[in-house]
Design a protein that fits this description.
Length: 140
């Protein structure tokens, strides 16, 4: 919520929570990272699968981010006071750990967060069916 609020303040014309929340007591810098508004307001194509979450600029087809599911540690969205936003925290070699915020107009935030949840659930079921083999010292 804090990250969504910061983006709404920084991006002109962003629809955000009007109500200001009390700031979080702990520093969010380690989670939020530095603000990067390079793609703010840009229409994107979001692809969600059991292996990754991919963000691509709709107009020029540039890949903005491709996060493997195991690198995503948290996802939230569709809260009443930030109903048009989804946020997720992912780690990648370029940005380290960062919070990514997607504006999802027309009630799509709930669908997006549900789809991310389904992808995690299906991935976990796949893991249970075929868990990785343990590596023994002799296999190394």
């Amino acid at each position: 919520r804090e990250a969504i609020g910061l983006v709404c303040e920084a991006v002109p014309g962003a629809k955000g929570a009007v109500r200001r929340r009390k700031p979080c007591g702990r520093s969010l810098n380690s989670i939020l990272g530095k603000s990067n508004l390079k793609f703010a307001g840009m229409p994107i194509t979001l692809t969600i699968s059991t292996s990754s979450l991919n963000l691509m600029a709709s107009d020029c087809k540039q890949i903005i981010a491709n996060h493997h599911m195991q690198s995503i540690s948290f996802a939230s969205g569709g809260d009443p006071d930030t109903a048009e936003y989804v946020a997720y925290v992912a780690k990648d070699p370029v940005n380290q750990r960062a919070c990514h915020i997607l504006e999802c107009p027309e009630g799509l935030a709930q669908d997006v967060i549900s789809t991310i949840g389904q992808a995690f659930e299906l991935r976990f079921k796949q893991y249970l069916k075929n868990p990785p083999k343990l590596v023994t010292p002799h296999d190394r």
